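Hey everyone, long-time lurker, first post.

I ran two proteins through the pipeline my lab uses and got sequence/structure pairs for each. Pasting them in order. The first:
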Amino acid sequence: MKIEVKDIKGKLLKEYLFNFDQIFMQAQEQSSIDPVKGASDVLCGRLEDEGILLESDEQLSLQKQLDDSALEENDARLLRVTGKSIHKKNDSKNQRTVNSMDQSELFERITHYPNPKHKEIYDSLVGLDALKERLIKEAILLTSPTALEKWSRSKHKGKVIGAIKALNQRSPFLIFAGDVGTGKTALAESFGNAISESLGKEVKMLRISIMTRGGGIVGEMTKLITASFKAAEMEANSTDAPTILLLDEADALAQSREAAQMHHEDKAGVNALIQGIDRIRLHTKTMLVIFCTNRLSSIDPAIRRRAADIFEFERPNDKQREEIFNMYCEDIDLTKKHLEELVKLSGVNEKRTYGFTYSDLVNRVIPTAIFSSYPDKPLTFDMLKETIQRVSPTAPFIER
């Protein structure tokens, strides 16, 4: 769908291309009003973001043209409106335009792979082998469009089978969900190394800054989110290697718009996230978006529906806890009976209905046992056992 914008003298200001179906889908998800009016509102918002303002009569004209063109073929839709260019001025030193912001303001951290430190972190996440295998396969197929075609031609007598279309229509967007300390963020920040090794290419991860929520100024959060996605998109389009955009604690920005107490600014922020994900699906072939959350049910339904896959992380079971102790304590002469007792002590018991998380064991139990032993005593089974009995596991996150 093409929109021609002219000024009041009839001079062409600019032409814009929009995906008709995407606009209507977004309109339906953002409100329950008439879909044509909703689509008109979405387009007016998109045009305003581009610096074009439509007066009320032109908004009505746009709405009528959308209604009239609903039955046309997608490539035949041409809408014409009259608008005016606007130049928004900052009314606060704390506000910045998207173009004036650099990556250090938008991203908390930028990581390049291959990276020895993150390889070590990735390899240390024991007990997640099946999840890792699925993740790497998903990530490669979502960010390397030609990989599926090569597979199809090699396995189907040189043909690109039609079933590939179903995969190509998915958004390059994954959600990592699970309790605190189950390894979501550690895997999200380190799996880029495995992608880099698999493809033989440099991979980059951009972690969205917590400052993206803004300082409460109207419109600031939306601008920051939009700027983050656009900056990541430019980065991805400048190279043929995958670029990962990571949003940790995503429920802080992507919480459901169905919440009665939700502020208008927060709803606008969720809409900006949806627009960013949709834009990447349509325009960027080498980018992958990852959201991490402790509260999957609080994520807006429209965002959850866009995820190509949702990876759910759980606390380690008996076998996985044994693997953790084996990995970190294999050289201190633990017997099979010792391992069985450590596994039992760190799991569910008569006093609690939950066991230790990965983070509890690796970041609290083992380091605490070492601190208690240093500098006069060796690390032993007895010290590990005493530490497990003394340290309490992190309680499960309960949504209220």
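...and the second, right after it:
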Amino acid sequence: MQISFERSGGFAGVTLRADVDVDALSAADAKRVTKMIQDADFFDLPKRLTAASPQPDRFQYKITITDKGKQKTVTTDDQTAPESLKPLIRYLNQQAHA
């Protein structure tokens, strides 16, 4: 499973990126990341979860997951990200800062 993550916006407007190969993670980390994806029902989320009137200083997130021949991209922001997706966003943010 491959994850591509991009965070843009915020006060500084700096874009951060991370690519995670879940299959290359330790067994424990792969299990944890896979659970976050399942808990978020990622492949059932709408493609866009953004506010009707977005605020410029909020972070925007673009997450693309490719797994077993299927691919899904979800775009969301701080205001509209479902609670179930936030653990995955936090994890990917940490990977982008690493």
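Reply from user beta_strand_b:
Welcome! Quick read of the second one: The two ends are 20 Å apart (CA to CA). The chain has one domain: 2-97.
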